[in-house]
Amino acid sequence: MGTFPDLRKFGGADAFLRACKPRVAIELLSDKWSMLVLGALLFGPRRFGELRRMLDGITPKMLTRTLRSLERDGLLTRTVYPTVPMRVEYALTDLGESAAGMLAVITTWGAEHAEEILAARRAYDARPPAGETPVPA
Amino acid sequence: MGTFPDLRKFGGADAFLRACKPRVAIELLSDKWSMLVLGALLFGPRRFGELRRMLDGITPKMLTRTLRSLERDGLLTRTVYPTVPMRVEYALTDLGESAAGMLAVITTWGAEHAEEILAARRAYDARPPAGETPVPA
DNA sequence: CAGCATCCCCACGGATACTG
DNA sequence: CAGTATCCGTGGGGATGCTG
């Protein structure tokens, strides 16, 4: 069928149904802020406020929730320095770095095909309401 | 920092803020069913009912919505055969196949790291409520 | 067969205000 | 500084029933 890695090697579509292994990756990608946070941490360890400023538009609540979730999954570490004022630093783990690697793949794909997709979208939206049904046979 | 492709080449975190190009990929991934449908179509063109059966748990409404969205983005084609009873076939485009390639990357990553993540999750959940704060310096 | 229409729920996530 | 607490609107998506 194609030149891409054969999905069936990994279980194909079945691999995604129900609560199966690779689903964790999908959940990660599906979350609005997770990959953004990982991306931000690629620049090195960052503090709460720094991340907040890097991720324009994120609220403290969502940043906290996202960081907790990523920490729980072992994608980043949270280190508290009990200074005054307090200081907390977040850093990617190896696992987190590899997850960010996925982000790179996705970003690349998106950058390469965005124009094509947007063009298809325009064409679709511009086509006649009641249409000629493409009838090959 | 790592061995993965350098995100900054693509604009880094900034590349994701607001409505920028690579975001279309994220939207694709974020949708609950889109990548599953693409994965199913990797096995070849399929009819509505076939897809419905392959994607256990999907409702007709969501299948329709997902297919329409993917068609609009040029990831698959929809061909109507006006037979009796009616027959509609969905097939990946080249663009759709390349998108499914992303799925392979993600699936692989998920399969390789799922156990690690689940272990981290168990460890996190099992740790003492009020905790020893890791104080390096 | 391949959908479309409708109702409805609740979880995601934003805004705002407060605390150790 | 680094969060927590609370309220609340939106819409994603399930269930059900009907149609060309």
From TrEMBL, chains A, B:
Keywords: DNA-binding, Transcription, Transcription regulation. GO terms for molecular function: DNA binding. InterPro entries: HTH_HxlR (IPR002577), WH-like_DNA-bd_sf (IPR036388), WH_DNA-bd_sf (IPR036390). It comes from Bailinhaonella thermotolerans. The lineage of its organism: Bacteria, Bacillati, Actinomycetota, Actinomycetes, Streptosporangiales. This is Transcriptional regulator. Residues 20-118 form the HTH hxlR-type domain.
